[in-house]
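Hi support team,

I'm opening this ticket because the web form for multi-chain structure prediction keeps timing out on my end. I have pasted the exact lines I submitted so you can reproduce it. The total is 519 residues across two entries, so I didn't expect it to be a heavy job. Is there a limit I'm missing, or should I split the entries? Thanks in advance, R.K.
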Amino acid sequence: MVVRSLGVMLAGVVAFVMLGGAAQAGTPAPERMRELVHMVRQDCGSCHGLTLQGGLGPALTPQALRDKPVEALVITVMAGRPGTPMPPFRGILSEADAAWVIEQLMRGFPEDGGTVPAAALR
Amino acid sequence: MLDWIMNGARVIVPALLLAACATTPPTPALRGTGDLGMVIERATGQVQVIETSGRTSLAQVSGLGDLSHASVVFSRDSRYAYVFGRDGGLTKVDLLTASIAGRVMQAGNSIGGAISQDGRILVAQNYQPGGIKAFDADTLELIAEVPAVYGDGTQRSKVVGLADLPGNRFVYSLFEAGEIWVTDLSDPTKPGTRRYPAGKQPYDALVTPDGRYYIAGLFGEDGLSMLDLWQPEQGVRTILPGYGRGEQALPVYKMPHLRGWAVAGGKAYLPAIGRHEVLVVELGTWKELERIPVKSQPVFVMARPDGREVWVNFAFPDNGWMQVIDTQQGRIVDTLQPGRAILHMEFTPKGEEVWVSARDDNKVVIYDTRTRQKKLELPAASPSGIFFSSRAFRTGF
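Hello R.K., no limit was hit. The queue was backed up. Here is the completed structure from your submission:
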């Protein structure tokens, strides 16, 4: 516990310093957006629910996020939340990815268009 | 309070089950249920009824709601499958007619359920509102409720790691409260609950096949909590304390599942949280015997029914891999890539085959466990859990 929390907290500090104006970062490419939507619905969905109504993790609906500052949400995604099961997504998401995901969540998240076809990955 | 939705769903009656005839009503052909099962199609709120003798899909049943974390238990005659949906839906599906025999919305957010030893009581474990609810397995009528109240009495904890026990008792863990509760429903009008402190943030649990030991994995500390249900007065004991040994734990992108135990040859095989390891512990003494390094963070660590092999899948982003541990040699003997996003696996009752769901490839892959070669692929829309009716006869399933 101690080790895991400390690690996440340190990571959080580093991310905070690095992030700065993350929300202003560029927009992901269309194919990446599709991947991100699939990932949020399916993999984030294992804790937050496929419909994002919550589960082990809190709901990520526009209503639930309405009063939360965007920058803080981006930091939560990148650095995780110490003491909770929310892991840091740095290394999996870029800051631009995270900022785009938060923006979509706050608007009402798109439906999953499916994964990028296997053929396109090869 | 109970919202009944009867047979609202589109039902496809499988051709195999019917003797089709133009002039007389169809007569169902006789068949057993021991080789039937269910594949959850998580994104579309549907399930497939499958059979493992000929490896075919018999029918699809829709209208089951949000199945993003669905789990299934079976009636003791293994005719009915009870599907617990994420949105609190509890649906009774008749495997023989592939139709919905009953459905209630029992909570706002649910994580699964269990069925009593005598098969008469279903219990749902809920996140919102936190607690358990008990239902008549025939009618789905609510018969008892135990709110997972803790702290000053106003907070309710999410309930995880529910398992059935002999004597119509149920054991479960409270994530926020850090407690293990045992509720006796032998008289459902007077549920009796005993509470045990369980350590920080239990996230899932298992009960050994004999119903004796309950082991809860902890997210909030390095170690697991064990309750000997034959001697509950001894309280909860921490096992494998500090298994992280001060090393930096990795980010956890998917909580391991302990249900679907791997107990083989007097040993329990447990997924290490935040580590690329399977922990091996001796039952009874709870000594750590070894750690088996694996490809990534394990999610399901499941013993083939004969206990000779343990199959493991992994958390995002390494969820395209599976590995097979030989329990006699204590090492990995095979590494497989069945498809993208491997979410679950289920062994046939005697273990000659394992069915594996590949969510992002929209297929179920069937392996011969002796050769570990692919036998067949069946199409399925975003498949997650696979549940065979033989679970009806196993404690903890």
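A quick check on our side: Residues 2-121 of chain A form a domain with the Cytochrome Bc1 Complex; Chain D, domain 2 fold (CATH 1.10.760.10). Let us know if the file doesn't open in your viewer.
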